[in-house]
Each structure stands twice: as structure tokens, then as C-alpha cells.
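Hey, sorry to bother you again with one of my protein questions. A protein chain has come my way and I'm curious about its shape. It would help a lot if you went through both lines with me. I owe you a coffee for this, so here goes:
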Amino acid sequence: MTMAANDAYAAVCDAAAAIGLPLEPAELATLASDHDMGEPELSALLATFGYLGVKRRESSIETLLRLSRLPRKEPKTFDNFDFNRIQGRDAKALAGLPALADLHARRNVAFIGPGGIGKTHLAQAYGRACCLQGLKTYYIKASELKDRFESAMRRGNPSRVVGALVKPSCLIIDEVGRRRFDRECTDLFFDVVDRRYEKEGPNTMILTSNAVASDWPEFFTGDDTLLCTLDRIFDKASVFMMRGPSYRGKGLDTYSVEAVPQATKQRGAGPMGV
């Protein structure tokens, strides 16, 4: 068997493995010998397995995006975020977000600033980029998270909800501070934080808020010991303090119109005004 043949068999086997078909080069060589398969047939196999690999990846990404709860209509991406609008000393750090370095370094990310500045856009774009890398993502607003916890406590299965929030590689919690968490919901939230803190592999929480991090304890209910657990969110984190005018209304068109007085119609006037 020539070196070129060995390379061809290895390439076909690698392409087969990518779609979950275990195939050894020696096994493929025997098959090729038994069926008179030459270079054209091996090339056809490589192309077929490669095509199926692409289809499988596309299907997997589609499933991840669907389960992520990220908006599918007009999705927020890094490509359609105007990074040129961002200036300042640390603008370069924000522009580096698409590399997903924080995810692989197991660091959390927080976007803090006024409404309309792009916090949610960046959070959703980060989650979408994770899905495109084949990593599970889940997006939820803080108010929805509180409702989810309360519903789970009524049903008696809060541990199941907490476990589901620990699984994703990227967990996005949008609009922290929009609603206050009572003691029970605070306990569950910090359980999620603690368990994700110890999670192995690529792992990040993406959080957005209009309030600075020092004010976050006001949105949760518990004693000092419990609220100190909040520090675990920021123990390893990249916090972007964002300022500037709102993006909202950039597609707004304003028109000025004026109504003129209505003409007065004479009572009893005929068709010719007689």
C-alpha cells in the first residue's frame, strides 16, 4: 500500500468518524480491495462523508439555536453590532468578544449601562457565537428566571430547574435588577451560581443590567453570608461599563404635518350654490 493510498484511507476514515461512523484504514483498505475501489471511488466516499458531516453540523447548530431561546427573527450578532461606535480606553477589549476568550477561560461577562446602548445585543451575539461553535446556550430574562423559580417551588422540583441552568456552556441572564428576588428565589439563584462556578469545560455566565454591580445585592433577599455568594459571579469576570446615547430610535422617521381648517358648507345651498 503506497503512502498516497494510506493518506486517502486516513482522510476517508476521518470524514466517517466526523459523522459518528467508526472506520479503520485497514478495514477500508480491505473493503476497497474486495470491491475494486480505486482513487475515484475513494474520492467519492470522501466527498459524501464530508457533505454528510456538514449537514450534521448544520442540523446540530440549528437545534442549539432553537433550544437557546435566542430570538430567531432579526438575530443579534457580532457582525451587525456597530463596534465603530464604541470608543474609549478599553474599546479594544469589547471588540475582542467574538473570540469567546472568556468562555474558554471560564470567566463571566457583565454588560452594565443605560438602556438602549447595546447590552442585550452583545449578550445575545455572544450566545449565538457559542451555538455556532457547537456549545449549548440558554437565554432568559431575570424576571422570567424569578417566575421559573417560583413555578418550580410550587411544583416541588426546584433542583431540576437549577440543574437545567447549570448545563449550558453559556447562560445569559438579561436585565438583572428588573425584579427583586425573594429569599427562596435568591437561594436558588445562588445555587446556580455556585454550581456553575465549579463547572468544568467552556463555561460562562453573561449578565446585563442597568445597575452597577455594587447595587446588585439590593435585588436579592438574604443575610450577609448569602449575599456574599454574589461575589462568585465577579470572582473571575470581565465587566464592561458602558456609557453613551441610546441606539434605539435610529430607524425612526419623524414627519411634520398640519391640518387646515375645514371649509364651511352653507345650509340649504343647491348644487349651484343658489
Remarks:
- The radius of gyration is 28 Å.
- The longest strand covers residues 170-176.
